[in-house]
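Aim 2 progress. For BTB domain-containing protein, the working sequence is reproduced below.
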Amino acid sequence: MFLALQSSYFKSLLLGNFDESQKDKIELKDINPDDFQNFLELIHGESSVNDDTVSGILHLAEMYDAPTAIRRCEEFLSKLSQKTMPQKLQISLRYNLENLKTKCLSEITTVSDIQSIMSLKFKEMDLSTTQALLQKALDFSIKQQ
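Predicted structure tokens for this construct:
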């Protein structure tokens, strides 16, 4: 029941009209067991999220549509994570973490910050992020003239 409350995927799977809802055991394929353990601990209120576990938890939280887990990971990344700003920005873009993205973009204060982001060559960069980076680069260029 707790999984069903935290995840629309598990709600459908466990309480819906699927064969799995009648079974005692359900096999989850193609997931890392450690990531799933951390995901379970997080949705149960444990503080299992850290810089080593956050990406795996976010992957599962997105896959299983678990907004509380996503929110807790975003809060960790915003407040406690020791990851670099470009790494956080990359994660925010990959998992659509708008608050984290906004925070990361606000922390860009130098041309070298933009260069460090561009060096990652992320595939997930959306138009609004690209525009924000271009605007910051233009602002820096104008200040240097």
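Residues 12 and 109 are 45 Å apart (CA to CA). This observation will guide construct design in the next reporting period.
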